[in-house]
Amino acid sequence: MNMKMTSRSLSRAALASTLLAAALGASLVLVTSADGAASTLGAAAAQSGRYFGAAVAAGKLGDSTYVNILNREFNMVTAENEMKWDATEPNPGQFSYGNGDRILNHAVSNGKRMRGHALLWYQQEPGWAQRMEGSGLRQAMMNHVTQVASHYKGKIYAWDVVNEAFADGGSGGRRDSNLQRTGNDWIEAAFRAARAADPGAKLCYNDYNTDGINAKSTGIYNMVRDFKSRGVPIDCVGFQSHLTNSAPGDYQANLQRFADLGVEVQITELDIAGSNMANAYGAVTRACMAVTRCAGITTWGIRDTDSWRGGENPLLFDGNGNKKAAYNNVLTALNAANPTTPTTPTTPTTPTTPTTPTTPTTPTTPNPGGCTASVSLNPWTGGFVATVKVTAGASALDGWRVTTVLPAGAAVTNAWSATNTGTTGTVTWANVDYNRSVAAGQSTEFGFQGTGNGQGITSTCAAS
Ligand code: 9MR
Questions:
Q1: 164 catalytic residue (yes or no)
Q2: Which of 252, 320, 421, 456 registers the highest number of CB atoms within 10 A of its CB?
Q3: To test the ligand 1 pocket, which listed residue (2, 4, 80) has its Cβ within 8 A of the most ligand atoms?
Q4: Residue 381: pLDDT above 70?
Q5: Backbone angles phi, psi at 211, to 5 degrees
Q6: Residue 241 pLDDT > 90, yes or no?
Q7: Distance CA 341, CA 357 (A)
Q8: CA-based end-to-end distance of the chain
Q9: Among candidates 155, 144, 172, 152, which has minimal Cα distance to 113?
Q10: Is residue 265 within 8 Å of residue 297, measured between CB atoms?
C-alpha cells in the first residue's frame, strides 16, 4: 500500500500487584498506580474489556528493548508480515509457519492474544498465486484460508479474513485483482471457509482509507450489512487508521455506524504522522472508548524505527524506546474510559508466591490438587473481563482443569487460551494444546469476557 492516507488502590494493593506482576513475569492486567489508574496500555485497555496491541516482526524478537516494551505494554499481537500468504504458503500446498508460530508462541507465553493478519490480500500473494486466475485460483484461495485458519485454530482472537478488497476513490466498489476476478462472491466464500476451519475466531474485514464516512467505507458498510442479512459469518471490521495529523471529524460516527450493524469494530494498524500526532492519538483512542463495540486498538509497530512509514515517526515510542507525548495521551484516554472501581485483582484469594512448605514432610505429594487458580477481574458497566492464573504446585502439570462458579446473572460471552463447558453458574475450563504443560511452580493464564457482574467468581484447579 502506498502513503495514500491523509488523513488506574492503595499501597497494599499496589504491593500485591507488584508481587503478582513479578510472579507472572509479564503481567499486564495488574499494573496499577496508587490512584487506580493503570500504567501500561494493555492494563489500561483491559479495564474496559478492551485490548491494546502492536504489530510485531519475528526478526525483532531478539531485540531486548523491543521485546521489553512489547511484554510490558501490549496484550494483543498482530504478525506484521509473517501470517500473510507469501509467508505461509510459498509454494502451492506447501505451508511454512515458522515465523508466524514464533510470534504466536511469544505472544501466548507472555499472556497476550493474537490477531491473525491476513488470509487473503491482493498484495503479498506468493508468485505462484499471482500468476493464477479463475477457478484454479479460487480453489487455491479457499484451500489457503482453510489450511492457515486450521493451523492456527483456537489460537487467534480475530482474523483479517480479507484485507483491502475495496477500491479507493468515489466508486465505493471492489478493487480489481486476480482475487476479485474469480467472482464477486470470493469474500463471502473466504469468510465461510474461515468459519468452518476455526469457529472460535472472530472474522474481520480490514481496510484503509475507511476511517471516515466516505464512498469506500460506505461500500464496505453495505457489504457488511448484506452479509449480516444473509447470514454470511462476519464478526468485525478493522479500520487500519494510517493517519496524518488528525482523524476525520466523523471517525467516531463511522465506527458507530458499523457497530450498529452488529459487528465489533477494531482499530487495526494505527499510526499517525505529522506534528499534531500526539493530539490525534488521544482523539482516536477516545473515539474507540466511546463506541461500546470498539474492541481494541493496535498500533502498526512499536517504536518509530519499527514503522513502515520510514522517517515519519508515527508511533508511541521513539527509536530509543522512550514513551512519547502521544503515549501519555493514549494512556490517559484508556484510563478515562471506565472510571468505575477497576479491579479486585489486587487481593488475590490464593497466595501469589508459591507457598510450598518450608518443611517438606511429604515431598512426593506436596500439592494434592496439583495446581491453584486465582481470578483477577476487570469490571465495567454491564460486563467484565476475568483473567485466571493457573499455577502448578510442586509437580509439573500435563493438562489442567479449572472450575469457576459465576455469580447469578453473569454469563461467559467469549474466552481465550482455554475451552469452556457451560457459560453460567459452574463453568469448567480445560487447557488448550499450547498451555497444557506448566512447569512446577510456574503459571499460565487464560481469560474470558462476560456479561453481568463477575464480582465474587470462585475458582478451583485440578491436574487432568
Ligand atoms: O508493515 C508491512 C510492511 O513491512 C510490508 O512491507 C508491507 C507489504 O505490503 O505491508 C505492511 O503492512 C501493511 C498491512 O499488512 C496491510 N495494511 C497496510 C500495511 C502498511 O503497508
A1: yes
A2: 252
A3: 80
A4: no
A5: -85, -15
A6: yes
A7: 35
A8: 49
A9: 155
A10: no
Could you tell me whether strands 383-392 and 443-451 are parallel, antiparallel, or unpaired per DSSP bridges? antiparallel
For the chain, the 3-state helix, strand and coil shares in percent, each to the nearest 5, are 30, 25, 45
Determine if ligand 1 sits within 6 Å of the CB of residue 57. no
Q: What is the dihedral of CA 186, 188, 194, 200, to 10 degrees?
A: 170
Pairing outcome for strands 51-56 and 76-79: parallel
Does residue 336's CB lie within 6 angstroms of at least one atom of ligand 1? no
Cβ-contact 148, 193 below 8 angstroms: no
Ligand 1 within 6 A of CB of 443: no
Minimum CA distance residue for ligand 1 atom 4: 308
Tell which atom from ligand 1 comes closest to the C-alpha of 307: 1
DSSP 32: B
Residue nearest ligand 1's atom 9 by CA: 1
**Does 240 sit in the ligand 1 pocket, CB within 6 Å?**
yes
What integer best gives the mean pLDDT of the chain? 87
Task: Pick the catalytic residue from 164, 188, 264, 445.
Answer: 164
Give the lowest-confidence range in 19-33, 93-107, 109-123.
19-33
What predicted TM-score, i.e. pTM, was given to this entire model?
A: 0.71
Q: Which helix (H) or strand (E) holds 333?
A: helix 325-336
Residue 4 near ligand 1, beta carbon < 6 Å: no
For ligand 1, atom 5: residue with the closest CA: 81
pLDDT of the residue at 418:
82
Ligand 1 centre distance from Cα of residue 5 (Å): 13
Partners of residue 244 on adjacent β-strands: 246, 273
What is the 460 CA–ligand 1 centroid distance (Å)?
44
Contacts of 259 (CB under 8 A, 6+ apart): 265, 291, 292, 293, 294
Per-residue pLDDT band for 368 (boundaries 50, 70, 90) equals low
Would you say residue 319 has pLDDT above 70?
yes
CB contact at 8 A, 402 and 428: yes
Closest to 75 in 3D by CA, of 41, 125, 122, 124? 41
